Amino acid sequence: MAEDFARAVDDGLKLAKRIYFGHDRAVAAPRLTAPMERSSTSQAHLPSAPMVYAVIPDPGIVDNPDLPSYQPHVHGRCDPPALIPLQMNSIELHVDCYLDTALVTVTGSWRVHCVMGSKKCDCRIAIPIGDKGSILGVEVEIPRKSYATQLITAQDGNELEKTAQPQSGGFLKPNIFTLTVPQVDGGTNLSIKMSWSQKLTYNDGQFFLDIPFNFPEYVTPAVKKISKREKIHLSVNAGTGTEVLCKGCSHPLKEKMRNAGKLRFAYEADVLKWSSTDFSFSYTVSSSSIVGGLFLQPASVQDVDQRDIFSFYLFPGKQQSTKAFKREVVFVVDISKSMAGKPLEDVKNAISTALSKLNPRDSFNIITFSDDTSLFSTSMESVTPDAVERGVEWMNKSFVVADGTNMLPPLEKAVEMLSNTRGSVPMIFFLTDGSVEDERHICTVMKKRLANAGSVWPRIHTFGLGVFCNHYFLQMLANLSRGQHESVYNTDHIEERLDKLFTRALSTVLLNITIEPLQNLDEVEVYPSNIPDLTSSSPLMVYGRYRGKFPESVKANGLLGDLSSFSVDLTVQSAKDMPLDKVFAKNVIDLLTAEAWFSEDNQLKEKITRLSIQTGVPSEYTRMIQLENTEEASKPINTGGKKKTETNGEKQKVVSRTIPLQNFGIGFGDTTATKENVPPGFGEARAPDAAEKFVKAASSCCVSLCNKCCCMCCVQCCTKLNDQCVIVFTQLFTAIACIACFECCSHVCCGGDD
């Protein structure tokens, strides 16, 4: 999908060369891709900032709507349609950072500069979203029309699809959302507002914000006289109540406000060219030791859950003097045939790197599974240079793909090997790209085994590859054990994401965290229900709902690296200017969806649906639609040969239309794809069906003939033929085509060569 999109943009840039802007150009015409660069076209033409494209099925409509060039007509059509990037007139970025989440809004204006004024085309919006982001909404304004995305229940979405065909829209890649605006006139200006949420990254006491904001040169308006206004607004609410220090910024922001735990910046300028770098900002909330706080917020009147809200955070501090935990680590790796090639190679490299970072006090083992289970060692191996080298050699020999995906035996074996640990943190890293039918049974078995594993039970950290595994099963498995869950939907970043999971899980600084005295409340619910461990590479953020009088004095308790008890007071404060429900919405919806999948509780599914619609965060139980509002023209009135427009002081009538969009939920795994060993990936091309095989076979004869001689030779030869000879050759080639079709039909219908 992404490669097709990039090729369509490449075709669109070639078509854009036809557009004549006169002599008053501000930028050069789009540069064509050189032959040596075409291998990287799929990456070069993917959006690196919010973009809008004209969808061009007919190249004949491409022209300057203000200054027609009267170029020769282009015959034929673009299949698939070409995508011409629209020129951008203004852009405004608004970012609000709360705790570890950024709420982003981009408002801009784009012009259909490449289509004749008398013609129409679809316009496709593409929005690259930052780390672990979620699209929240898109609004579009054009003359006499407006569009806005909304969420409806999955049931209503299914009913709507019975009467209307779903339109293109959804995720081109896991981090690129697209939406199509139908039939926009050439020369029209589109005002677009797009919103999403994304996570901040954290490292060594600093938060890092990175927003795709790198616009290619060809979206700059070609006419010099058009003013170009660029605005950026940034606010930071770290929630700590202590001083926040800015460490770095990509754009020249001016400080507008500084209070305890809060910052506000702004930037506004007329520019010659749009931003050519992503917007990045970093700030520090570091401390020498573990610190935390707690926020309280009453539920709003519109809230579907009328229980009050609380949220607490813990920052790890620098922890140089804190004793590290002794770790016992078991890697459980899926080696089914779908993992062949790059996925399994990346997993092996990531595990090798993780082994090199373990301490001599630690121990490890490696288990592989397909239909069968294999162990590196029958017992845990102490981390020594020799043991690590033998482990890497074993992976090189044993990471050989095989049939089947049997998950329960290796998990039970890993828990059994860690059942007698003393004075250490037992960890299981479970990696798979598949889905099996007994996943709920696996969760039930693991829940019972963990309950009998003592006070420090094994943490199961899960990693899902691709879209065919059940990420909610893996999320549930991690939640049951206070573990971490990480996912990657395509094969581009497996090693990078795995390294993040290993680094985060292996840097634990506080175990078995509890909050006291929450038990005195009338009712309390925490997300997640089993609070994960605090690590030095990531702060801990927990969300909850409660009824009753919240205690004035609250403490967070846990175990340090030497297994001694630790306690820290949490400063309780009111979160008046922090939308906690939106900040935690995606995380809460994901956690509840995992629980709803496991329990098969319909009431919980309805709760998720209401929460999704309220916060605008898509879920598995909602569908996104596009609402089109059209202002109808007033009716003319005849008054003795003259026509007047009837208004009567009333507003123009607005006609609404609901456009269903394609479902872009990740679903609950695909056991069929797992059994068929389909490789992991996002938007993978499906296998060709019978009709596609028929067309391909029918055309193979002509293709093979054309490959024997060049096109110019054919043209020169045909110009020398007389009419009678042309007729004979026409009949001959028609007969050959019929024979090819007959052979194809026999192959497709009979299912083989017999």
TrEMBL record:
Positions of the VWFA domain: 328-506
Taxonomic superkingdom: Eukaryota
CDD domains for this protein: vWA_interalpha_trypsin_inhibitor (cd01461)
Gene3D superfamilies (UniProt xref): von Willebrand factor, type A domain
InterPro entries in the cross-refs: VWF_A, vWFA_dom_sf
One Pfam assignment: VWA_3
Identification of the protein by name: VWFA domain-containing protein
Species for this entry: Brassica oleracea var. oleracea
Species classification: Eukaryota, Viridiplantae, Streptophyta, Embryophyta, Tracheophyta
